[in-house]
Amino acid sequence: MNQPVPLAELLEAVGAWDIKPIPQQQEHFSFNFKGQRNVWSLSARWLDTGKLPQIYLDDRHCDKHRPHVAWYRVVCYNDGEGLFFTDEDLESVLLKSLQMAIKVLDDGSSGNLTEFFSELEGYMDGIIKIKPSTNYQCYFPLEETPHKLWAYCESKTSHKYKWYSERNQCWGVSEKDWKRTTEKKSPAHGVRGYYLPLRDQHIDPPLPGEYWSFNDLLKLVNSFLPELPELEKFVNKPWQRYIFSFPREKGERGAFGILVNKDGASYRVHHIPVSRFHKDYLQKRASLTIHAAIKSQRVAMIGCGSIGSMISQMLVQSGFDNLTLVDPDIYSADNLYRHVLPKYFIGGGKAAGLKMFLESAFLDLSLKASSDNGAKWATPENIQQHDLIILATGNHAFERQLLKTFIRNSSLGQKIMSVWNEPLGLGGHVVLHQTGQHGCLNCLYFEGGSQLIHPQVSFITPNQKVSKNLTGCGGSFSPFSANDSRQTALLATRTIETALTSKEKSFYEFWRGDKKQAIHNEINRSPVYDSGFPEKDLWWDEKTNTGCPICRN
User: In what residue span(s) does the THIF-type NAD/FAD binding fold domain sit (predicted)?
Assistant: First the structure.
């Protein structure tokens, strides 16, 4: 448990003066502190020594906007990156914090507001709201065309509005709740507003601790009258709701919300934070850089078991939207602890279940599910309709046969990948063949003009029994874990991303795990595993130069 911080004593120790407690605020002290260029009037709170102290700028310095000073006057001097400090020397921590805050304030005194407007959305979101729960949830894209909006509101007390311009954008509302919007007594009925994207208009945000007047708002709204003449009547309504967007760097747009209500003869303006629920924003928030090649890829996943299900989920989370899922098997309880599907899908088809799961978890996907086996599904027509086919069946005899069909029917730019786990956590493999290039799954079974019965890259020596059985005849399974599949799936996803953004070639990749389980089960490792395969890149370059009878022709 944190001990009380003797903040007043610490402030005096680091050189602050005129230290006074702020009335009715717990452990909040005002003081003066000298930086390299200015004397600053500040205040500080420090209730948790596991965090840095909060430092506030006094009102007398808030006559203009400054970068990294929030509306409620807190100085944002550290974003949490590279944050290492000890609570055993609080005086040093406080001094360093004050020095960082003073540097932010000194640097912000130049009058350059580029950084301030870059963080304007956060500044506006920090303005005290009409009620703490009030929030505008934005389900539509922030484009540069103004238009009317509609909102779904859960209840009269929630103050959470789900804004959309088209019904299909608002994925956060169930069909049952949508029906309530037709009921006149429902809080969701008839709620509308306007989206107004600022372009060249000057934005003068309220100063710290202040609010916009209705006239301040009208200056922005009236600039849209030529495009939306109906705004002239809308600004006279007792309740008005707006979402504004504004340009940011690199073509992005920020947003803030406004709620206006008539109070007697005057109008009150409330600043409402905006939460983004549109797919493009959420993907960028996940640090995804979605290349055009990724968005356009049509992917077929043949085998929706442990590895296949994890690759499918990773591909969707990487920006791939168009997947065909192929698997004839039923999802059983035996699969539960090494598959992405939860227990509720047990008893249904793997492909259909995976489609339903991904559609319920992510946005705007184009998924198909087939219960055909891979051989039946892989017609020339289906092959030609997909840019990438992933084979995660664990059956190399079948996959090498399908590889022949693929090469006969594919065109330049198409790819086929095979993925598999080694047993007992030894590792996993990925082979990606590009049409027109040498290097494929069959190359691993071909050496010196001879066909092999065992892949050259296997991590165990041939003719060993590695399958497990808990129930007797018919109950055998390959011993690998969910973490093994997860690592192979990640390797596969990274390889696909690389293949789409690099020069066209074929790829072979592997990961090598721990050998403890193999030793415990008396499984002999191959020289490839024991050596770590340091010559892999040279070996694969040779394969891609010579090929095999399948990919060479």
Answer: 292-446
Distance in angstroms (rounded) separating the CA atoms of residues 466 and 425: 12
Q: Render pLDDT for 442-457 as a digit per residue (tens, 0 to 9).
A: 999 988 778 888 899 9
Predicted confidence band of residue 80 (pLDDT cuts 50, 70, 90): low
Do residues 158 and 299 share a domain? no
Q: What is the CATH number of the domain that holds 460?
A: 3.40.50.720
Give the residue carrying structure tokens 């705004």.
231
Q: Give the chain's mean pLDDT.
A: 90
Band (pLDDT 50/70/90 cuts) for residue 185 is low
* Backbone phi, psi, residue 476, to 5°: -75, 155
- CATH number for the domain spanning 81: value is 3.10.110
**Same-domain status, 214 and 137:** yes
- Strand-pairing partners, residue 325, are 301, 369
- From 118, 140, 166, the end of a domain falls on 118
Domain count along the chain: 3
- Which of 391, 452, 394, 398 shows the shortest CA–CA distance to 423? 394
CA distance 61 to 33: 13
Q: Where in the sequence is the domain holding 331, given as residue range(s)?
A: 289-546
Judgement on whether residues 375 and 453 belong to the same structural domain of the protein? yes
Report the candidate in 452, 458, 446 with the shortest Cα–Cα distance to residue 548. Answer: 446
Residue 248: per-residue pLDDT = 87
Structure tokens that stand for 200 in this block: 């060249």
Q: Are residues 162 and 268 in the same domain?
A: yes
Residues 393 and 486 in one domain: yes
Report the alpha-carbon angle 181-184-189, nearest 5: 35
527 and 393 fall within a common domain: yes
DSSP string, 107-118: HGGG---HHHHH
Q: Give 314's Cβ-side CA count (13 Å radius).
A: 21
- 431: part of which helix (H) or strand (E)? strand 427-434
Distance CA 420, CA 487 (A): 11
Instruction: Say whether pTM exceeds 0.90.
Output: no
| Predicted confidence (pLDDT) at residue 504 exceeds the cutoff of 80 | no
Please tell me whether residues 267 and 293 are part of one structural domain: no
User: Average pLDDT of 461-488?
Assistant: 76
The two beta strands, 192-197 and 239-247, are: parallel
| Rounded-to-integer distance, Cα 108 and Cα 112, Å | 7
**Is the separation of the CB atoms in 261 and 270 below 8 Å?**
yes
Number of other residues whose CB lies within 10 A of the CB of residue 269: 19
Q: Beta 147-153 vs 17-21: how paired, if at all? A: unpaired
Domain co-membership, 435 together with 300: yes
- Asked if pLDDT for residue 476 goes beyond 60, the answer is no
User: Which residue, of 232, 257, 283, is where some domain finishes?
Assistant: 283
Q: Do residues 405 and 377 touch, judged by C-beta distance below 8 A?
A: no
| β-bridge partners, 272 | 257
pLDDT, tens digit (0-9, with 9 covering 90-100), for 359-406: 999 999 999 999 999 999 999 999 999 999 999 999 999 999 999 999
